[in-house]
Write a structure and sequence with these properties.
- The chain is of the alpha+beta class.
- It has one domain.
- Helices cover 44% and strands 26% of the residues.
- The chain contains four helices and four strands.
- The chain has a four-stranded antiparallel beta sheet, with helices on one face.
- α1 packs antiparallel against α2 and α1 packs across α3.
- The longest helix is centred in the N-terminal third of the chain and has 26 residues.
- It is elongated and about 50 Å long.
- The N and C termini lie far apart (47 Å).
- The model has no long low-confidence stretch (mean pLDDT 89).
Amino acid sequence: MNVSQILVVLFAVIAASFSIWSVTVVIRYPIFKLKPLWVIGCLFGFIGLGINWTTPDNLFLIFGITIPVVTVFKVATGQVIVKTGFPIVSAVALYIARNIILPNDG
């Protein structure tokens, strides 16, 4: 594995963990109205990285929607493409729930 592949794998693990954590928070805490929309939004990735895993020469910055946050697929030429996006809605959800997740006793 080269540096680009390692970077994509780390970003993918962080994005997937962040998404799963935020979906759990949205489901568990009653401060979120319209929970189904929040859960769906937490599964969307918006800004991220992409790489042709077969020939990892270039690392691409992706602006767009990735559903789910990590996508791996094989194209007709036999190349494996890995795309991952950061779930921005997850960041918003965790920011809204920050006082419940991390209560300050001050």
